[in-house]
Amino acid sequence: MADDQRTTLTQQIQAQEQKIKQLKVNNADATVVDGEVAVLKGLKQQLDAINANSPDKKKKKAGKNAFVLKTPKGTKDHNDKEMAIREKVFSTITKVFKKHGAVTIDTPVFELKEILSGKYGEDSKLIYDLKDQGGEECSLRYDLTVPFARFLAMNGKEYQNFKRYHIAKVYRRDQPAMTKGRLREFYQCDFDIAGTYDPMIADSEILKILCEALTDLGIGQFSVKLNHRKILDGIFEICGVPEDNIRPISSAVDKLDKSPWEDVKKEMTEEKGLPEEVADKIGEYVMLKGGRDLLEKLQKDEKLTQNASASQGLADMALLYDYMDIFGITDKMSFDLSLARGLDYYTGIIYEAVTALSAAPTTADGKKVERKTKKGTDELDESTVGVGSIAAGGRYDNLVGMFSGVNKKGEPNLKIPCVGVSIGVERVFSILMAQQKATEIKSNETEVFVISVGDGLLKERMQIVNQLWDNNIKASFMFKNKPKLDKQWNACEKDHIPFAVIIGRDELDKGEIRIKDMRSKDAAQGGGITVQYADMVKELRSRLSEL
Amino acid sequence: MADDQRTTLTQQIQAQEQKIKQLKVNNADATVVDGEVAVLKGLKQQLDAINANSPDKKKKKAGKNAFVLKTPKGTKDHNDKEMAIREKVFSTITKVFKKHGAVTIDTPVFELKEILSGKYGEDSKLIYDLKDQGGEECSLRYDLTVPFARFLAMNGKEYQNFKRYHIAKVYRRDQPAMTKGRLREFYQCDFDIAGTYDPMIADSEILKILCEALTDLGIGQFSVKLNHRKILDGIFEICGVPEDNIRPISSAVDKLDKSPWEDVKKEMTEEKGLPEEVADKIGEYVMLKGGRDLLEKLQKDEKLTQNASASQGLADMALLYDYMDIFGITDKMSFDLSLARGLDYYTGIIYEAVTALSAAPTTADGKKVERKTKKGTDELDESTVGVGSIAAGGRYDNLVGMFSGVNKKGEPNLKIPCVGVSIGVERVFSILMAQQKATEIKSNETEVFVISVGDGLLKERMQIVNQLWDNNIKASFMFKNKPKLDKQWNACEKDHIPFAVIIGRDELDKGEIRIKDMRSKDAAQGGGITVQYADMVKELRSRLSEL
């Protein structure tokens, strides 16, 4: 058999080589030639794969390129159990989003390269590019926010007033640290409100949505750190940070959740050239945490209130606290002046939700990965969020304008302010997977398994299962002419199917079938109640409605 | 403002150039340098974008590279209305799949290039490759079948008995014919049953699932063309086609749904070197269509029954007809000997569902695209299926084995037979979108809009909407301190929200609110019934349950 295949492939390879030669003679377009070369390579690989296992050593050598069976670095398959958890998470979150009037849109998985360029600062080097196969230069999306802003810039006139969510995969060519749960392909789950509104109303609804979603996901206690870019920028101005050093100093401050003040101060002074007394002044502010009490304290700080940026930020925060009180979420919030967030594009409030629970990351087959923690700290992290974070976001009023072009005055043609949140669903999956055994997860929804006793009764089982399907009951049976009774029971139990319909020749002749509740472990293979065949659907419906 | 940005960007560009220079001096790794160059390019593009709109002509010239705002060629955004239809389609299909016990898995959007190589014959040239940025060579998935087979080869021992569906995007670097509805990124929707079972049982359930899904989708009349690769191969053998010409002749036969016999015969004889009498003999068989009557006719054909391959195929078909009778789907089937299907990997029954309806493709904004049809034929097509097709599939018993490696005898290490179907959901979307006006599609699920009359009553509206959310009622309000009444009505109508809760100062003081059914057009902005605030949730729940 292998020899036949080898002969056919060898002929195909020769023909393909001839074709490519001819194309080159005819000066065919390079992309056409490349395509045919790809076909040739495929054929050669097939041949390699066969030769690799050949007992003939000489041929074996030629097969050294036979490939390893795996997914690309930093990616993984998600099996049925994992998908069951994922679907539960998505549907829980989507329900909350829809309760708040959100719609969804879909954008391509890749964008023109230039759309993504200049949006992610130093992280631009993590963008995946598509190969230039003749045509446009494209890259896989890095997040869902930039494609959303691009969509708004293209269609914004129809979407001046827009609540949208988007749950999809994004791509980052990071050094994958699987043991940290960091992947190159992972889901993001974004909710954003676009439009020009009165201050802080949409912002407070986003925070309400975040609290509802995290509560409904059942991942335990959480709190939301809250800050305002304008207060932070005001503090930097007051303390004497030069304007072009504000963002670098801001990202140093953002490390305060992981590093002690001394390290952050060192970064500010030694790496970023800030005078020590300036750093100390910043330190006095950014160590402050609290609730509305902190806001009231800052409102009495004349240096802050006299700074235009800080004053605006404080006014926003006061309004926000009023609205959060109405929405009943103030107790979840922690006003934290050390929160700075990495991304450059935020212009107003910023926030990050943290959870007390950690999660052991799992491999593709659901096994727990052993983690090495450094200095006893929990180092699990995701690309979007810091240590312990489960969601993050903020207001970004200028991103859409970056895509809309500028008018003669240098102002954007279209300005659509936005506020949004991104929930770190990969971390949520990890937490929920860690909470249960894989074998206990029911990944199918099958309600009834049709079992025959004695004879195979294939056609009779098919008749019954067909009747169940036609009555919208989720049902399965074994694809064997004469399945063994044991195997049928096992299949039913393995898939956690709650009911079995059991048929035997004698009972069928009397127009009867048996229904057994598989969750009652008492009578292993016996038991159940006998009902008339005509009452089967009615009886099952009544029992299923009680589940 | 533009000048400030320009100065900052110029400084950043200089700094970045310096950084790259230094990296090169230090012999840094090429991928590191490439990353920093990508950052530099981004900064330069931002500068270009600003200069492009500068009134200063000299600067304008530098901005000639400013980008066009669009999605990549062959891709499109899907707006909220389109997504509402898509979600309906996905949930309808998923419900059918789950009724039949299916689970879902997820695989990465890209695979190692060598996994895809040699699987798609000449179409391999349509595979999208990722750029080699240091590391593995990867390609975007071309379909969902090969990743499924790769998954089974990796995890098959746990999945000997597996019904899985997968709804996800695939990628083909085809010449996009948007007017034909053909895209480079499109959804596939696959259902497959893997495992070693008794003959034709799983095959018949796949056909049952296909009929249920197409019926539930509400796309009108359809029929399913049915054939068997072994019967077809037997016919070719009997007629005298040399073995290495069977697949090429088979793909000529597959064109009979689009081309007259004379053209197909010409391809067989002139292009593929078949003697005319052989082609004529084939013609006698492949023009045959029918039902079980055709099967019975073929069962009496001694030439066929004496051919091992055809005889096996006929036995399969006989069993299949028995099972289809039980499942009540025989009337949808058309046994059609001209159906050959393009893909090489089919080994048993093959099928293709066709619908009477055609659909006008739409652009991203929901407008209908004007189509040019050639010779009066409907040329709408999708990459997976032929003209008029809406679903297709077949049995492929050897694909998993291609990934599992071969033993010393040249046989695959792991053999998992599969049968599956792929529903052409892009075409289903087109048909359903064409059936209704975009403005009439409700893309949100909001049930109640809270409106104030007279004063703005922002905090009161927020209190009410919060109470509705806490009671799981989907509610919205306008993000304005003092919204105009007209604008609130318009928002409510535009989003097709069925109920309004209307509040005014006087009524609130009396503890009352008004509930209005927005679908009753009689009393434009008045009307509705007054209820006690305490009864609001109860009253709304009762009305919503009647929707």
From TrEMBL, chains A, B:
Its EC number is 6.1.1.21. Its main location: cytoplasm. Residues 85-435 form the Aminoacyl-transfer RNA synthetases class-II family profile domain. L-histidine binds at residues 143-145, 172, 188, 192, 341, 345-346. One of its GO terms (molecular function) is histidine-tRNA ligase activity. Signal peptide: none annotated. It catalyses: tRNA(His) + L-histidine + ATP = L-histidyl-tRNA(His) + AMP + diphosphate + H(+). Keywords: Aminoacyl-tRNA synthetase, ATP-binding, Coiled coil, Cytoplasm, Ligase, Nucleotide-binding, Protein biosynthesis. GO terms for cellular component: cytosol; mitochondrion. InterPro entries: aa-tRNA-synth_II, aa-tRNA-synth_II/BPL/LPL, Anticodon-bd, Anticodon-bd_dom_sf, His-tRNA-ligase, HisRS-like_core, HisRS/HisZ, HisRS_anticodon. One of its GO terms (biological process) is histidyl-tRNA aminoacylation. The keyword Amino-acid biosynthesis does not apply. It is found in: Cytoplasm. Residues 6-33 form a coiled coil. Catalyzes the aminoacylation of histidyl-tRNA in both the cytoplasm and the mitochondrion. PANTHER family: HISTIDINE--TRNA LIGASE (PTHR11476:SF7), HISTIDYL-TRNA SYNTHETASE (PTHR11476). Belongs to the class-II aminoacyl-tRNA synthetase family. This is Histidine--tRNA ligase, mitochondrial. It comes from Syncephalastrum racemosum.
